[in-house]
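Researcher: Here's a chain I'd like modeled. Treat it as a single chain, no partners, no ligands.
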Amino acid sequence: MTLTEDQIKQLYIFTQQHYVDWYDVQTELVDHLANGIEAQWQTNPNLSFDAALHLEFKKFGVIGFNDVIEEKTKALNKHYQLLLWRYFKGYFKWPKIVITLFLIYGYFQILVHIPNRFWILLPSTVLLLVIPIWAIYKQAQRIKQIKKDTNKKWLFDNIALQLGGLIHFIQLVIQVGFFNSNDNWSTTFSFIFSVSVVLFALALYIAIFIVSPKLRKDMAKQHPEYKFA
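Model: Modeled as a single isolated chain. Structure tokens:
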């Protein structure tokens, strides 16, 4: 025995009723539940759909689907971060590595010789803030449009908003710079800060313009319901 289309729809409703809002997670759970129900019917054909569903759901324990959501979130975060790291490493090839070194050297020279570092720290801060905020805004608009067109939410989109966790480091970079902006920076500190700013900006660029678009395309291939925009 196999599940009917109506029963598949009931499984989607069932996952929603149990606090699974993300359609990509719902799809995985529905597939798992459907396989389990059909396996039960092979040994007990007289078992009702509702009874078989109840037995399958009990296998998830007292907290229901929460563990699945948590595991899926961790897996997507890890996948995003690994892809970001792979592209980041791959970026350091000729001639891009020369451009990167030139940017680090130029930023370092400005920090060392400018009378007031505030005038280099301010535009650096603005760029490190504005670019991610712009990217998050565009992604939020995309999510809103997808939700409007398909009436579905995707966990992947929520992960992509975090840019692989890079947004959590923005405040750290800014605080380090401004906390020390009025002190006499050593040459070593200036160099380390220059490397950090340029590499962090590069990581943001890769996350926003390379990794996120690639993952959206992959998502669209795996899930026809997901509209790539």
